[in-house]
Specification:
The protein starts with a helix and ends in a 26-residue tail after the last helix. A hairpin with a 3-residue loop joins strand 2 and strand 3. It contains ten helices and eight strands. The strands form two sheets. It has a five-stranded antiparallel beta sheet. Helices cover 55% and strands 17% of the residues.
Length: 339
């Protein structure tokens, strides 16, 4: 009861302080630590009481053992929630919703992977401490230690893919070949990095499918990262027209059109003849955008507009196939021979 009352008083004071002096850290502490603290404070007081000499007799030894196990579980719960608090502070400090968010996404990628590693470590240590509270488990553990070398080799061989992915994850977290929300092309699919776990990466494809790949894929296999250093990207549009098309007028029309498009970042716009064949010429329009999504929309808009402009103003300049018919020569017949 004393622990429960102390818990209520503590979080009541924290709640009042948060109302007067709002902060992301305090709000996250209240949100994440409220539930585990409800059990942690009474359990801590129970351990203190059971540690007194008056409760050292056998009937209370079982209760003390249970309280110790509960304390380890609650402590692990608190540590995991502290990592959630750290994540909230990082997310509020480094906002990934702004346009130029390369540094923010880098920090979020590292933070998320380290957080997953720390949760795994906390769970393993907590499980070990709980088992060490039981004498029978200690004896089994000392026996197993004698064959730890052989067991380690067997486990290592069985879990080599898992270990490979864990090491690849650490390398990805710090060398940053990919980050959260990076635009990538993998397995001939275009999409965004949606999730990075301890063993695999989820890529959200443009049509909302999910491509799941092991972490070591991004270390061992080549792939395209369109936002490695910057989200800016150039978009290209190819048109095939007749040689009679006035290229300069199309170039001026392209510049006029992109001025009114919000997708254009006002950096690059140009039009060039990039190829000439026996059937016509190839024209490339080059435009820039702030990110790949806007570049795609801008390319489609430019392609539609230029085709419509040519159809309306220069329909004779659309690509065509020429066929030339030679006049037929009359056949001379020799009357004497008939040939």
């Amino acid at each position: 009861m004393a622990g429960w009352i102390g818990y209520r008083i503590l979080f009541s004071v924290l709640g009042q302080w948060q109302k007067r002096h709002p902060s992301v850290l305090l709000e996250s502490v209240i949100t994440h630590l409220r539930k585990p603290s409800r059990y942690a404070i009474p359990n801590l007081l129970l351990l203190i009481v059971l540690g007194a000499e008056i409760f050292s007799e056998a009937p209370y030894a079982g209760a003390a053992k249970v309280a110790q196990v509960m304390f380890i579980v609650i402590l692990a719960w608190l540590l995991i929630k502290c990592e959630d608090i750290f994540e909230d502070v990082i997310r509020s400090t480094f906002d990934v919703s702004k346009a130029d968010n390369i540094r923010e996404r880098t920090i979020h990628t590292q933070m998320n992977y380290i957080r997953k590693i720390m949760i795994l470590v906390v769970i393993i240590i907590a499980t070990g401490l709980i088992l060490m509270n039981f004498e029978s488990v200690r004896r089994i553990g000392s026996t197993l230690l004698t064959s730890a070398g052989v067991a380690g080799i067997i486990i290592g061989m069985a879990a080599q893919n898992t270990i490979k992915n864990l090491l690849a994850g650490l390398q990805i977290a710090f060398t940053q070949p990919i980050r959260y929300d990076d635009v990538v092309i993998v397995e001939n699919e275009w999409g965004w990095i949606e999730e990075i776990t301890l063993t695999y990466v989820v890529v959200r494809i443009w049509d909302l499918r999910r491509l799941v790949l092991p972490l070591h894929y991004f270390i061992e296999q080549p792939f395209q990262n369109w936002t490695k250093t910057s989200a800016d990207i150039l978009g290209t549009v190819y048109l095939h027209t007749d040689y009679t098309l006035p290229v300069e007028e199309i170039r001026q029309e392209l510049k006029r059109f992109v001025q009114d498009r919000e997708e254009w970042d006002q950096k690059v716009v140009g039009l060039q003849v990039t190829n000439a064949t026996d059937k016509g010429m190839e024209i490339r329009a080059l435009v820039s955008a702030r990110n790949s999504g806007q570049a795609w929309n801008l390319r489609c808009a430019v392609r539609e507009h230029l085709i419509t402009f040519i159809q309306k103003n220069y329909p004779q300049c659309l690509i065509k196939v020429r066929i030339e018919n030679s006049p037929v020569q009359p056949v001379q017949v020799d009357p004497a021979t008939g040939s």
